[in-house]
Amino acid sequence: MQSDRRHIKIVRLSQRMNLFVIGILMVPIIIFSIVIFKYIAQVRVSDKIKDVKLNMAQSQSTIQKTVEMCNIATQVFLNSKNLIDWACSEKAGEVVSIQEKMEFSKEEIVNLEKIVNSNPYLYQIRVYIDAPNVTEIMPIFYSYDRLKRLEWGNKEGFGNGSWQFDYDDNLFPYYVYTPTKGLVSLVTDIKDNEYGHLGVIEVATKMEILFPQIYQSTNEQWSCFIDSNGRVHADTDKGLKWSKYIHNIFREIKEQTHEECYKQMQVGGEKVIVACQYVKELDGYILSIESLKKETDKLNQIRNYYLIVLGGCLILIFIFISYAIKLLLKRLYEVIYTVKKVRNGNLEVRVSEGEDDEIGELGYHINRMLDQISKLMEEGIKKERLMKDSEIRALQNQINAHFIYNVLESIKMMAEIEEKYDISDALTSLGRLLRYSMKWIKHNVTVEQEVEYIKDYLALINLRFDYRIILSISIPENILEQAIPKMSLQPIIENAIYHGIEELAEDTTIYIKGAIKDKYCVIEITDSGMGMSEEQVINLQKKITGEIETIGSSGNGLGLKNVQDRIKISFGKEYGISIVSKEKCYTKVIVKIPYKVSGGEL
User: Fold this and answer.
1) pLDDT of 310-338, one tens digit each?
2) What is the DSSP secondary structure assignment for residue 105, as one 8-state letter?
3) CA-based angle 73:78:81, to the nearest 5?
């Protein structure tokens, strides 16, 4: 059951690797696709807005030209003295002969008619005389009453340079001629200082000439003109789907700006570009709607093709990656199979290292680990045997030690009876020293126990010399409780005596000082002996660290190296001893051990 569960997990690892790799590919591709298609859409909208602006500029140019022609024609008529004089005579009711009428028609009317016929922007120019019994001379002069036949003629205030939009030419009955539809005209009052209001001049053109963009509308592009009264003028045969939204669109745009606006909007569920521009000359607005449906459909089509191609590529990539991962995990399964054999106790099996890649390196390290385990097991067996032998020897030493302790106690009693107290104290120190050194201890001792041993050792040493070695101890209580390998400090004291103090042959002091620094303790042992040169210190330090091989003889640093090795084995590589010395002055040995309090390390 456990094996099946593990197999399921390995299969899931393969699936997760496939999904992970595909995800790594998909995320940047999706982000890139979103960004690039968004950018393309923005570019297309931007290009469309440029086209709309260009069309609006062309439309504005056409309007300005047409309006200018209408104004020029109006001024030409108003500046015609003969025309004004004729209007004044009609206003005054003067009787004019037929001959005079014919001459006026032949000369003045013909010239004025040429102005109209020579200008393609103009449809007709008419003068309406505000007087009774006016003599009408076609196609220029008409009675003021005929204005009532026109759509705008019955309204008030149609003069004074106003524009009349999108009306039919109903000046004559239908049976005379078919009226022209879709006219726009500039209507201007004719005034005289003596007779006052003489009439009006109608300079007419066609809506399709003034607003060509309106009459070129399609379902994708539709335009209209909105006059100052809010009337919408457009081609009624086209763009009916937009017309019902015009007032709402125009109201929204006017709230934002008065002059011009180009905005992307959603109208009738369709994305469009709405352009609105104020025409100062006509006091109205040209509003254009440009559909983005074709661009959107085309972009969607490109995106669909892209997604199909991308999907196909991803499927091929997925198949390739699945195959590659399967090959990769095949070698991993071999490693797992080997590890399972090792778990079942077969340490002879080895991984086929194969290629020089990560799995090959994993196999190599597993093989080296198995070799190391085998070696450690052999060493462990040997060590266990040595420990057994050591325990037996220690037991034998303890048996022998009891005999020695009893003999020493007997000699001590004899010395006290003979009142040889110096000999008695020396024997006491020697007994404690022997008991400490011969006692079997599996673990470390405390610093306090090691210091007590040093005291007994120095008591015996002082019996040998004519001079006295004084021991100065300054160690805090919490350091005295710290663990240290047995016989770690005594070899340092012994080194200080035989290599530093003995040559002086005079009273001196050995200082033992302890301090806590961060998470470790420092025990400094300083003697005022011969000291060492810098070269000797470096050489000794290399022997202690094992950089220089030590040979078993006096003064070669073997004792200090043993202390160094035991401290590192007990506490770690960051702990040990170091030496500072000055020739003919002092030598200081610094012992670094971890600081621990009850409950764990600080």
Assistant:
1) 888 888 887 887 777 777 777 777 777 78
2) I
3) 125
